[in-house]
């Protein structure tokens, strides 16, 4: 009897849950503020001259020659003769001049990172792509956080719960669409701490889209609820080279919108059995979704420039090797020939609201950093090379 009473006394009410939400909000804000100290905002990393040379594809001699000419930023030195260090902004100036990436030809490419399975590094991958395309290729990038959980926003040092209201997310685009009104998308992107990367952040209120879009579609069969983002992004495609979209681990109406807006889709997969099994469901849903969609207004069917599978959190464990073999066997040339390894560093930097691209040369051992950073550098370069080839074809 006593036990029953105790259990009853311990019942959890809605008010208790709201209290828990408030406590979590407070704690997240406190942790974030402590992490970012002494700055109120995140700051981009410093870049060593060795890293700058690698990214530009030049050697020490060439760097010395360019420095002598004095046309590019000289970075800073702790004292004369010591290694130079550069800001990300300075690095981008070097990249644009020395690497000389092909200029964008045609509208921005929309790359969506999606998998309905949770925890497969969608957010980490999309953020690294945004940072990497800016730093390594001098691209202008818009990152759209379409996950109401707001993890990507968090990696930019934004607290989606305390600092973002729905008017700053893609919600006004959806509301305007549902009301049949035009909407100025150029008002939404805001700069981040990372040069040349803007963001449209997320907030919990994005969940409302999941009720609003189907309600409208049910009352009006003609409504193209899956095209809202696609149509809205058209206004931004001259401003950016890339629009990278992070999605939630569900087949939500927002994810459907992202997929419909995508030129390229990257599907990260972790080589474990549950992740592999859920991929089967993913392809069914993805295929059904695209086949079931009506054509564009001009009659074209939806096509993608690429749909790639990226193996992440790869380990040397036999089970992971077997699964990776199956993945390659099934998805063939769609599998990106780069494995992102399981890495404590990747996990730990996320814990600090960062990615390992946020780390400077003195933050961590060079070898530990290189192990995880090199394959991601290769991924960023591969995406840009692929898109450049597509831009060239579209000429
Ligand atoms: N290379 C890596 N090695 C080990 N852990 C990693 C790696 N990359 C990311 N992680 C960790 O894996 C977890 C999931 O990453 P992330 O949040 O990017 O996945 P997600 O697919 O966006 O998750 P969700 O489905 O919840 O949105 C995080 O704890 C992150 O720190
Ligand atoms: Mg995520």
Structural topology:
Elements: H1 2-9, H2 14-36, E1 47-48, H3 49-56, H4 60-69, E2 76-77, E3 84-86, H5 88-99, E4 109-113, H6 122-137, E5 141-145, H7 151-155, H8 160-163, H9 171-178, E6 190-191, E7 197-200, H10 209-219, H11 228-233, E8 242-246, H12 253-261, E9 264-269, H13 273-292, E10 306-311, H14 318-331, H15 344-351, H16 366-394
Parallel strand pairs: 4-8, 4-9, 5-7, 5-8, 9-10
Antiparallel strand pairs: 1-3, 2-3, 6-7
Number of domains: 2
- Biggest sheet strand line-up: 6-7-5-8-4-9-10
Strand count, sense and barrel status of the largest sheet are: 7 strands, mixed
CATH architecture of the largest domain: 3-Layer(aba) Sandwich
- Straight-line N-to-C gap: 79 Å
Task: Provide the helix percentage.
Answer: 40-55%
Ligand identities: adenosine-5'-triphosphate, magnesium ion
Shape: globular
**Rg of Cα set:** 23 Å
Output the number of helix runs: 16
CATH class of the largest domain: Alpha Beta
Can you give a write-up of this model?
This protein is of the alpha/beta class and 395 residues long. The chain folds into two domains: 19-100, Multidrug-efflux Transporter Regulator, Chain: A, Domain 2, CATH 1.10.1660; 109-394, P-loop containing nucleotide triphosphate hydrolases (Rossmann fold), CATH 3.40.50. It has 16 helices and ten strands. Strand 6 and strand 7 (197-200) form a beta hairpin. The longest helix has 29 residues, at 366-394. The chain is globular. It binds adenosine-5'-triphosphate (ATP) and magnesium ion. Magnesium ion (MG) binds at residues 122-123, 147, 151, 246. Pfam families: AAA_31. This is Cobyrinic acid a,c-diamide synthase. Residues 108-289 form the AAA domain. It comes from Caballeronia calidae.
């Amino acid at each position: 009897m006593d036990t029953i009473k105790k259990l009853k006394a311990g019942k959890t009410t809605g008010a208790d849950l709201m209290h828990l939400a408030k406590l979590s909000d407070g704690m997240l804000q406190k942790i974030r503020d402590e992490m970012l100290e002494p700055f109120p905002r995140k700051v981009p990393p410093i870049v060593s001259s060795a890293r700058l040379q690698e990214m530009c594809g030049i050697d020490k001699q060439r760097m010395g020659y360019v420095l002598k000419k004095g046309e590019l930023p000289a970075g800073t030195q702790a004292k004369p003769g010591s290694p130079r260090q550069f800001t990300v902004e300075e690095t981008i100036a070097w990249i644009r001049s020395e690497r000389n990436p092909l200029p964008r030809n045609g509208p921005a490419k929309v790359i969506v990172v999606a998998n309905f399975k949770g925890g497969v590094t969608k957010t980490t991958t999309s953020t690294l792509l945004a940072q990497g395309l800016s730093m390594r290729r001098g691209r202008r990038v818009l990152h759209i956080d379409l996950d109401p959980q707001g993890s990507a926003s968090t990696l930019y040092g934004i607290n989606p719960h305390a600092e973002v209201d729905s008017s700053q997310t893609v919600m006004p685009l959806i509301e305007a669409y549902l009301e049949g009104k035009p909407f100025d998308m150029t008002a939404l992107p805001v700069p981040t701490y990372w040069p040349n990367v803007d963001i449209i952040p997320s907030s919990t209120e994005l969940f409302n889209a999941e009720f609003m879009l189907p309600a409208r579609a049910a009352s009006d069969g003609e409504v193209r609820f899956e095209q809202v983002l696609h149509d809205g992004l058209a206004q931004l495609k001259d401003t950016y080279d890339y629009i990278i979209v992070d999605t939630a681990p569900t087949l939500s109406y927002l994810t459907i919108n992202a997929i419909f807006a995508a030129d390229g889709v990257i599907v990260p997969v972790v080589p474990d059995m549950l992740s592999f099994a859920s991929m089967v469901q993913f392809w069914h849903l993805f295929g059904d979704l695209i086949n079931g969609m009506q054509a564009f207004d001009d009659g074209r069917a939806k096509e993608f420039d690429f749909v790639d599978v990226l193996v992440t959190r790869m380990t040397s464990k036999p089970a992971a090797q077997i699964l990776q073999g199956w993945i390659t066997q099934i998805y063939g040339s769609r599998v990106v020939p780069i494995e992102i390894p399981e890495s404590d560093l990747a996990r730990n930097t996320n814990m600090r609201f960062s990615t390992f691209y946020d780390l400077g040369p003195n933050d961590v051992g060079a070898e530990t950093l290189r192990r995880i950073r090199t394959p991601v550098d290769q991924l960023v370069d591969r995406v840009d090379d692929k898109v450049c080839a597509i831009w060239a074809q579209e000429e």
